[in-house]
Amino acid sequence: MRRVAVTDGMAEEAVKRLENAGCEVVQEFIEHQQLVQGALAEFDAIIVRSATKITEEMLAVSQPRLKVVARAGVGVDNIDIDAASKIGVPVVNAPRASTQSVVELTVGHLLSSLRFIPRADRSLRSGDWAKKELKGTELYGKRLGLIGFGRIAQGVAAVARAFGMEVHSYDPYLPLSIAKKAGVTMHKNIDNLFKLCTHISVHCNLTEETHHLINQKRIKMMPGVDPFNLACGNHIVNCARGGIVDEDAALEALESGQLSSLALDVFEHEPVDPSSPLLQHQNFHGTPHIGAATIEAQRRVGLDIVDAVLTVLDGGMAETTVNRNDLS
Ligand code: MLT
User: Peptide bond before 227: cis, by omega within 30 degrees of 0?
Assistant: First the structure.
């Protein structure tokens, strides 16, 4: 019987689909040490989210049984893909399933920042009726800069345009025609995005190239005024990956007033240290990496990843194999 480890939870419907396909499903978190000691060799497939890290040393003792490593989500930065490729194990993910949920969270954060929703709620609870102080700004007429223009950014762009925003983007890997069709201005130089836009949202992967891509120098470039010269301040949202925003630089910019708001769903170190000074700043608000945490997204993620796992276990190549070109 095919054995599948599900270490970080998965929608019940998806677990049932695996069982109906004749798999024994073991749903429990496996400690790092057990994985290093060869736990993977007892399974044909492992399905993880972000809590379980799959390293080279774990994969080295996974053979001959393990046939696929599956990430129930988009980001595969917790899996050593090169090591999996070396031993011929495909790594599959579910890149489309959570798009709408992340789009909606991003827009939620943007609106929360501009209308001080978290701060207003805090002051209300403390007995303060801060009606006069909490004067926000509209999205209408503002310039939004999207770093990366994949599926999620395209979804955010569509909503932003419906709000009347002017949308700009930087994505060196995407054909210009996609942005043009979406009514978005594409820039070849990322600095132009910061020079033009008062609102920036991150939608790229974390790589060496994108680590601290939002830093002191770039935050300083942001104009703080909209195209009609209205002082709307500068605002940054990151619901993509931690580490793309330099959190120390962002805190400094919040303190100096160059940055009016920062909203993060993702942090360089997760879970974030609750005593971090960033978390205490009144113009910061955050969420604990919940972009894909909706009933709908988790159901789709589970079903998509199970389809990919079963395809591999049946001897096929899943459409969402991320190391397709490196498998020997
Ligand atoms: C993903 O990569 O799918 C998201 O960041 C969600 C998650 O890691 O749970």
Answer: no
